[in-house]
Amino acid sequence: MDWNKIGVICAMDEERDEVMRHLENVRPVLQKAGLSIVEGNFGKISVYLVTAGIGKVNSAMCTQVMIDSLDPDILLNIGVAGALAPDLEQGDIIISEAAQEHDLDCSDLGDPKGVIPRMDTSIFPADQTLAQDALKACEQLGCHGRLGKVVSGDQFIANAEKKNMLVREFQGDCAEMEGAAMAHVCYLNQKPWLIIRSISDKADGEAELSYPEFKFLAARRAGELFACIMKNI
Questions:
Q1: Active site residue: 15, 97, 127, 178, which one?
Q2: Burial class (CB in 10 A: 0-12, 13-18, 19+), 37
Q3: Catalytic residue among 92, 101, 133, 201
């Protein structure tokens, strides 16, 4: 698949900056809805890059703005996440097979948690062509990366009870606060997408301490993986 224009959405400036340092000729391209989107080049590929802000609403709004205004061929959500699967350690990479919003709860109306009423799916499939490119990039970098399910909600997961629930009820491999919202909007717009998350913490009782320390290293790893993927496409 040829990708000529790629949109990259990050939640935090720390994540965005690690992507930006791999781009050339970075310049402002759009100011809208409080967003400052820049365009840079990676070889012949145009990359639109933005800090969307933390949380699902920010992510969804930013995704729609980018689709409507810039129409990238594919959208990436790049950043850090908490590990849910026991085989994931800090610095490891999860590449999305699918994503789901774990905090959507209409169970009192008879729907299972995470199911969006009146939609044909609540588990959004990622673009597997680019996912395979990302796996190859992990091998080239010598880092542990694998496919997995990303679960997103407007809460920082930092205790064993919540972590175990996300594994038990959603089969999540990592938890964060934005990716599934981007996936949701991309699904409605029939736009391919992929989430790439570097593990910053174990989403357990130590997360409040380990996340601030390791988020910069995890963001650096995610940025390096982005650059390696771009070299291969």
A1: 15
A2: buried
A3: 201
Listed residue (40, 60, 41, 44) closest to 52, CA to CA: 60
One-letter amino acid of 6: I
Exposure letters 52-74 (e unless 16+ CB within 10 A, then b) = bbbbbebbbbbbbbbbeebebeb
- What is the distance between the alpha carbons of residues 8 and 35, in angstroms, rounded to a whole number? 13
Q: pLDDT tens digits for the chain (233 residues)?
A: 678 999 999 999 999 999 999 999 999 999 999 999 999 999 999 999 999 999 999 999 999 999 999 999 999 999 999 999 999 988 899 999 999 999 999 999 999 999 999 999 999 999 999 999 999 999 999 999 999 999 999 999 988 999 999 999 999 999 999 999 999 999 999 999 999 999 988 877 675 656 677 778 888 889 999 999 999 88
Task: Output the six-digit token pair for 185.
Answer: 């909007």
Which two three-digit tokens encode residue 100?
Answer: 């789901």
Measured CA angle at 122 (ends 119, 183), to 5 deg:
105
Q: What is the residue type of 75?
A: L
**How far apart are the C-alpha atoms of 229 and 233, rounded to whole Å?**
7
Q: Is 15 a catalytic residue?
A: yes
Q: Is 201 a catalytic residue?
A: yes
